[in-house]
Design brief:
This protein is of the alpha+beta class and 388 residues long. It is built from 14 helices and 14 strands. It has helices at residues 15-19, 48-52, 75-80, 86-96, 138-147, 158-167, 189-198, 238-244, 279-284, 294-301, 312-318, 332-340, 345-352, 354-368; strands at 2-3, 25-29, 34-38, 66-72, 100-107, 110-116, 152-156, 176-181, 209-213, 216-223, 226-229, 267-271, 287-291, 305-308. The strands form three sheets. An eight-stranded mixed beta sheet has the order 6-5-7-8-12-13-4-14, sandwiched between helices. A three-stranded antiparallel beta sheet has the order 1-3-2, with no helix packed on it. The protein has a three-stranded antiparallel beta sheet with strand order 9-10-11, with no helix packed on it. α12 runs antiparallel to α13 (345-352). It starts with a strand and ends in a 20-residue tail after the last helix.
Length: 388
């Protein structure tokens, strides 16, 4: 098998597939790793795929020139966002000034990149998505908009931002604004589908899904006008136990070159974990923003956000992905061996994350007995130490 980059090092950014004029590249994302496979019989050896591959051609990373914490000044926006609402407010300001936003949305059972052109469509981008999204086709779409003279804001994972930067010429980048997300790693969609199927849910049958609301982490599907938890209310389900523990990210995530203070985009956003601001503000959600460029500072400061100073050393201490990639758990191989042997998803989480699973089971019993209420207000999980 011929691959664009070294076996199992592919980030799954899809840039190579989009740049290939002969359509001979298939980016295969299995449960454990990504690989961009080349059809030798049809390949003309033009080298375009290798030139845009961020593994073969690393992009330049920049140090932050300023950093802030804060939140949307609109209380409804802040309440509906997973954190403080920075991404939504920056997008709102950008669209209001005639720009277009490309980011990940959930549509027809898939996590894909889509163009957000109206303020009404901003509801599609709210919320954390703890899954590997598919940016296929996004590169060509962004390029077309930039060639037409439009301004584009791209919000995505660092590896997807890097893919776009390698894909575009420097001249086209003048109207491109980028925001990367502090990412702990991303699992393949097949794992989420497997988890949901065991709970008698088909991913393509639901209208919306969320993984987190403020400090409440749980997979929830939308039913009518509200969200319903997949597992027991008030406790971590097996998918979130595995995700927060870094158990089943694709292999490249454990060597992520973007898990450091130097960043790939104009702005980096995430949660202001460990904030020294009052607890009441933390419960409402506080975003963290690192600005690497003047362009980044510009679009942040024209947005409807409340900006506060933040201690950068404290932010680094509580966001390990700004220092180093997630470590590979010792039980990762055992988990996948079980999955490939047709063991159930839930049973393999119990086997490989036994202590954490027992703790959640005890909590579930206490909630059932009404000894512990659980729920969003009292259910606080921090992902900063990757300790799940």
């Amino acid at each position: 098998m011929k691959t664009v980059c070294e076996l199992n090092k592919c980030t799954g950014c899809m840039a190579c597939a989009d740049v290939c004029t002969k359509a001979v590249i298939d980016v295969h994302v299995d449960m454990e790793a990504c690989n961009a496979e080349i059809d030798d019989q049809k390949c003309i050896d033009c080298g375009a795929c290798s030139r845009v591959c961020q593994v073969n051609a690393p992009v330049v990373l920049k140090k932050p020139i300023s950093w802030y914490q804060g939140w949307s000044r609109d209380e409804t926006t802040r309440e509906n966002c997973a954190s403080g609402g920075f991404a939504t407010e920056i997008s709102r300001a950008f669209i209001s000034q005639g720009g277009i936003v490309f980011t990940c949305v959930f549509e027809n059972g898939e996590f894909i990149y889509s163009a957000i052109e109206t303020l009404e469509d901003l509801t599609k981008i709210a919320g954390s998505k703890y899954i590997k999204s598919n940016p296929s086709g996004m590169y060509k779409a962004v390029r077309r908009r930039l060639l037409a003279g439009e301004k584009v804001l791209l919000i995505g994972l660092p590896c997807h931002i890097a893919g776009v930067k390698n894909y575009l010429t420097d001249k086209l980048k003048e109207n491109l604004y980028t925001i990367d997300l502090i990412c702990h790693g991303s699992p393949a969609p097949e794992l989420l589908k497997l988890f949901l199927k065991e709970h008698e849910i088909e991913l393509n049958s639901i209208s919306a899904i969320r993984f987190r609301q403020k400090d409440h982490f749980q997979v929830e599907q939308k039913e009518e006008n509200d969200y319903k938890n997949v597992g027991a209310k008030g406790v971590l389900d097996s998918y979130m136990i595995g995700f927060l523990g870094g158990l089943f990210y694709t292999e490249n995530c454990y060597e992520c070159k973007y898990a450091q203070l130097n960043r790939v985009s104009d702005i980096t956003i995430g949660d202001s974990w460990g904030s020294e601001l009052p607890t009441e503000e933390q419960k409402k959600g506080i975003s963290l923003a690192l600005c690497q460029t003047k362009k980044g500072e510009q679009i942040l400061k024209v947005s409807n956000v409340e900006l506060r100073t933040v201690d950068l050393s404290l932010a680094l201490q509580h966001n390990h992905q700004l220092v180093a990639p997630s470590a590979i758990p010792k039980q990762r191989n055992n988990f996948f061996e079980g999955i490939h042997s047709n063991k159930s998803f839930d049973s393999m989480i119990w086997k490989t994350c036994f202590v954490k699973s027992v703790k959640q089971e005890i909590k579930k019993i206490l909630i059932r007995l009404k000894i512990y209420r659980g729920g969003k207000a009292e259910y606080s999980i921090s992902v900063k130490n990757n300790d799940f």
